[in-house]
Amino acid sequence: MIKPSIAELLEKVENRYVLVNVAAKRARMLNEGTQPLTAKTFDKDVATAINEINEGKIKYRRIKRSSDTQ
Question: Labelling 17: which of 41, 46, 47, 59 has CA 20 to 30 A away?
Fold first, then answer.
């Protein structure tokens, strides 16, 4: 079984789509050289990002888009 499970991660973010976007963005940041926020790191940046999300080290906020799209 994969640890942490999707169910555990969904307690930290509002839905699967947000989870994927937050994890991908953080993995890109790690790949570009940003230091990990947790002591436990993995070979893969995505795994480290998911671990950071699970530990509550990653915060995010949603930005509402304007309805004026011209």
Answer: 41
